[in-house]
Here is the input.
Amino acid sequence: MDVGRDHVPASYDEFRAPDGTLRVGWAELAALTEASFDWAARQREIDRRLADDNVTYRPWTTRDAIDVRHGDDDEEVAAPQPWQLDPLPLVLHSREWRELESGLVQRAELLSAVFADLYGDRRLLADGILPPEVVMGHPGYLRPLIGAQQPGGLFMVGATIGRDADGGWRLRAQETQAPVGAGYAMENRRVLSRVHAELYRAADLIRLTPFYQAMRVALVESGPSDVEDPHVVVLTPGTHAATAFDQAFLASRLGFPLVEGSDLVVRDGRLWLRSLGHLEPVDVVFRHVPAGATDPLELQPGSRLGVAGLTEVVRRGAVSVVNSLGTGVLENPGLMAFDDAICHVLLDEPLRLPSLPTWWCGEDSARSHVRTHLAELQIAHIGSGRTWEGPLLSAAERDDLVRRVEDAPHLYVGQRLLPLSTSPAVRGGQVVPAPFQLIGYLIRRGASYAALPGGLGELVDERVATTAVPTAVSGRPTKDLWIVGSDLPTTAEAEGDAAAELMVGVGAMVPRVLDDMYWMGRYAERAEDVVRLVSATHHVLVEVNMVCRPGSAVDLLLDALYALTATPRPGEGVSALRQLRTQLVSRSRRGTVARSLARLSHAADGVRDQLSSDLWVVLAGAERALDELRRADPEDSSKLVDAAERSLVALLALNGITAENMVRDAGWQFLDSGRALERAIQVVGLLQSCFSAPALRAGVTADAEGRWSPPPQEMVLTAAMTAAESVVTHRRRHGGRPELGAVLDLLVADSSNPRSVAFQVQRLQRALARLPHAPTTGRPQRLLADLADLCTGAAVQRVCHGEPAVPAPPGDGTGAGSERRPAPNPVQCVDDYLTDLRSRLFRVSEAIAEAYLRRAPQPRPLWVAAERPPGPGGGGM
Here is the structure.
């Protein structure tokens, strides 16, 4: 396709010059725009790779603090949406980038100077350069921080820019509260470098890695001056933040722990990280939480995202928060109306990167201009960030907006609408010119700033191609920016090697992280066990020619499956195959494989910075298998088998990835504990569901040797052992038909069988003993010791004879181990035994949560003023 010839003439074409020649830098990529190229296939590959890496964003919701971990009431949480990346990069030559970078760096230096002035001498206000209403009317100006010496300062800046029709770059907006998107920009580069592997290797473009190395060095250098080895953490609102992936990716890339407000506490004038059994000092906080929400004591009462008392610690200089508290005021679009004057006063030089022409409505002449040219402007509220596009308003809407402006003119600005330039993009499998805006990122390095030699492009709908929407979470397709002609040395490159020498970090074994690890293990095991039981039941269903009669083996196994997943079984009319399919794919029913995988993914999101990236590839493969089953014919047996097998392979791979790659720290011990406890619960539940079925209880008696007559249905017991991955072991040891005592001994008491309850109890005891500062007589340890006494061969043998598992002391007729008459039906005695085991296992779970995973209570203010829900500009949430 001849890209770049049929677009709006008023816009700048990034691909071709007016004479039809290619722009500098595009020559190597021109072949990619040919119509014969299969862009649909390339887009599918990109989407798959993004899904494999679990790259998502969440649409903004008005709920600023959501915590529904491991519960079932998550319907209010916005579902994560897939990240979108265009197959074609944006291209700039290094010579042009050098000029743009110079303007971006100057912009960052100017913002830093403005921040220092507004919270220091306030010359801009005193000398009349800035009207006080512009600053005081913005919610980002935090009066409690006036005069505070904040060593962090303006650490990072996000600048949204676009070209005007003449090809000049203009600043459209700036992010200083907590810039988002730098992690997404790196992920975009990673994906495109794989999809266009040959082109990427051949292209003479500047790499991004040194920038992130320099970011790590700069964060360490941001610590208080009296701290030799600063401990750095990355503060996130949590896994439900709009840009949770971006925050977790950066934390992982930088090697710093990802923490939430509840993981931190202020004690004795310092900030501390709650670790397992002790506190760790924190010196630098790389925050991704709006400044107002970081301290419920002084800044935003009722906030659950921050740490009570943080502001006072900042004032004392005991912690460095970056970006510093109060930098949100620099996002104020009202400042753009005074850019030239501010730059002249603070930097004594002209602006290299101009802003959009802006008029502050607090001035009579500016307000008159805005009123007269409303149809050509975008109007912005400097407090809320809400915007109105003049050309899109009806006459009544314009009149209403004019009244709003007249009522509070100091809260509004007007900005000229400029057409965005276009670049080749893929839409509907075809290459077309599409308007875009670009977000650049800068970090402080010494007295100046270093720019990321790339950026995050955002494609904009043609209908709003003149508006500025500075967000990386709008859901629009994004682009990677390639700077070609790498003769340009970057500031970051010269200092990238130093990052390896500054691997300063602090452990993140906080209760929240351990809780996520623990539930990762439980949900992984739960999903695996259900997959195995579904497969075993399907095998029996095939053996009986797909017929499920009441009381049959298939019927009993379905009852066991629903009992294990704690969901009601549907009435008559639903085929057995459809019921098995539901247990795999339903997201709304508790206990299903899909539900457990979703919970597993959510728990893993909370500790993404500590996990191998391979984990997400595995989870994506399992989810892809279930998606294909959802789209298949519900009565297609082969599709169910295929989905179950692929899901099981993925879950086994997940187990291998964690077992082979994770350090055996406290996080691993809780992951392993979760797996062990869930496996024990599932095995006991499976045995209980099978052996207590009414059809198996009728008329069963035991002889003097404890053998049942008649034996339970062979198919049910074999399927149960298959689901517990122990059928081969049983055949090798006992041969012949399965018998109750042998099955119970193998799955409950055999400590050499890695699927038995006894094995899991010992596994739990070892894991808890290896924890730092581990007690030897805590409640979890005592409960496990009691369980170990119940999970022995002798106990199983007594139960099979209708006796209590643990005999009472001589002469004692009471207590947990009291003697009782043999049950008239031996199945009842086994059922009581398994019920007791299951109850004890749940008590162990409660004890572990109470002893290790309990989170600190959230501070509650004595009163909370009515609050306006935060908007999407609030620091990347």
Remarks:
- The longest strand covers residues 430-445.
